Amino acid sequence: MPSLFDSTQLSWLDWSVLGLYFGGLLVLGFVLRKQSGDDLEGYFLAGRKIPGWLNGFSYAATCMNADVAPAYCGMTVVTGVFICWFYFARFGLALMIAALLFAGLWRRLNLRTSPEFYELRFSGSAALTMRSWVALRSALIALPAWTGAGLLGLHKISSPLLEWSMFTTLAIVIPVILFYVLASGYVGVVTSDFFQTLIIIGSSVLLMIIVLVDFGGPTQLYTALEQSVGTEAASVFPPIGHEVLGLVAIAAWTMGTAIGYGGDAAPMAGAMEGQRILSCRNEREASKMYVWTTIILFLLLATLTLPALAAMIHWPEVRTADQKELAYGMLMARYLPPGLLGLALSAVLASIMSTVSSNMNFGAQVLVNDVYQRSLVKKASLQHYLLMGKVFSAGILILGILVAVAATNVIQISIFMLGLSSAELTANWAQWWWWRFNGWARLTASLGGPLIFLLNKLFVFPNPWFAFPNLLDFGPHNDYMIIFVSMGITLIAWVTVAWLTPPEPMSHLVDFYRRARPYGLWGPVAKAAGESLPPRGRIAFGFAVAPFGTLMAATGILTLSLVYLGRWSGAGIAAGVMLISGTLFFFGFSKLIQPQSSLESESNAAESHPRETVEPQFVENS
């Protein structure tokens, strides 16, 4: 096979587009610097004035790290059109559950950071330990790992195409990121994410069109795909026994990502999520944020992967494990003329910059709020905390650079981080839905869960590192079973600890109940508080409505995919299902997520109960 980029050289037009992109980010940071706010809430939460749709765009762009393009296009050439079921399973149901059952509750608490939750929900040393641990693992473990993965992925693309070394890549990209993040704060992050999302979608749509023109239209592309690869690759429905994306894999991803989702707004796999929720204007906008994230993320991934179908036809040899991730670069080199190649490279840069900027801003926020001010320097000037936030932002970026330089495989980083975060997921729902769940049970899940995962991975299931006798072997499904076995053992562990240790003090639980109004098993606490329980069946109704939202977004993507292949009748059926499921979801969402006037009334009623704040107010030194 010829070298990927033998005949590809960037023209002056490509370099001009890249220059305009970098210059635009610098100008954006300069323009928005005065809107960053002169306090911590303004700098890190944009004054809580962000609409749900904008935060949805931002979170979707943040999920599009630099490794996404080669990884997803690589999966496309191995599977086919039905690659969409991978991201349906990975994101769809999970995000909709968070929208309907948790986002409003998180926003109602009016926290500055999501780790603050643990001192509201729990008490004593366990609560402070959890708050500190979640903040430290987010800022010093999860965020540097994902930042490093993104920078490494960017280098893997820029190195062959631009002939940049790792040092050159970092020397060009890092100063731009530092400037607009440190200058404009969170408002700069979400605003730049919006424009970067448009760049990613725009460049992908252009590539889609160019591919269609090359084949002569949608029907001709479908025919070529069917003749070259087979009917399986041209189908929008995955075959049951497919070795990469069969029914078992789809079910495993759906369950593994949906269980526990939303109950923690600072998971190791997406730690900046809480910042999106807490910066929204109100509870309803926070819920809408997840819906917009689902729609925009699905659109980003669909427009990215559909052109990769051409790679299956042109280069059948890339359908091997060691070649598949080259497909994205090969498509760029073959199809994009001068100018558009620069635009596509700008989209790659946009994907990593949106992720890195979000990681820096959120990591600095939790370090300042939940570690530095909470436990180390409790009374200092506002300017001091803002300065430390910028110092921590730069420090997180430095740790990410170290990961990028030391690591060699982007996917290994991703799999390891997802595995570490999976074992404790069941506890995320329990802390909201069961009053008896206490701080020691939470620590058991959060500290013991990752340990259980590592023990299973190293000693119970087959692994390539140690020659221990393995107890379980599920063949190609080992990765999934490690996660589910770890989740099950962790569930048994934290339930046992919860029953064997006393519950949180009733006065503490009453205060949390009045402030959060959680759903589920809170009868004794509601009685002690003299409050009524939320309407029965609220959780069940949320679970009933969430699949309709997932179906709405998924059938929208199936419609786009079928249109792209000229399958007009199938596209019409998918569009009809999208309209029906969307209508049902709209009515269910409207019933579950109250209009803002109702939310304000409920909030005012909750505020009538006196309570202590979690943190003292900032004190200005005279």
How many β strands by DSSP?
A: 0
| Shape assignment | globular
Number of helices: 26
* Biggest pleated-sheet summary: none
Report how far apart the termini are. 70 Å
Which runs of at least 5 residues are low in confidence (pLDDT < 50)?
A: 1-8, 601-622
Give average pLDDT, whole number: 81
What's the SSE pattern?
A: HHHHHHHHHHHHHHHHHHHHHHHHHH
Helix content: over 70%
The oligomeric status of these chains comes to single chain
Q: What is the radius of gyration computed over CA atoms, rounded to a whole number of angstroms?
A: 24 Å
Strand content: under 5%
Textual characterization of the structure:
51% of the residues are buried. 72% of the residues lie in helices and 0% in strands. It is globular and about 70 Å long. Helix 1 crosses helix 9. It contains 26 helices and no strands. With 622 residues, the chain is an all-alpha fold.
Structure in a nutshell:
The chain has 622 residues and is mainly α. It is built from 26 helices and no strands.
What labels would you give this structure?
622 residues; mainly alpha; 26 helices; 72% helix; disordered N terminus; disordered C terminus
List the helices and strands and how they pair.
Elements: H1 12-32, H2 40-45, H3 52-63, H4 68-78, H5 84-101, H6 103-108, H7 117-121, H8 124-162, H9 166-215, H10 218-228, H11 247-258, H12 273-278, H13 283-305, H14 309-314, H15 327-335, H16 340-376, H17 382-406, H18 410-422, H19 425-433, H20 439-460, H21 478-500, H22 506-516, H23 523-529, H24 538-564, H25 568-592, H26 596-607
Helix pairs in contact: 1-9, 1-16, 3-9, 3-13, 3-16, 5-11, 5-13, 5-24, 8-16, 8-17, 8-18, 8-20, 9-13, 9-16, 9-17, 13-24, 16-17, 18-20, 19-20, 20-21, 22-23, 24-25
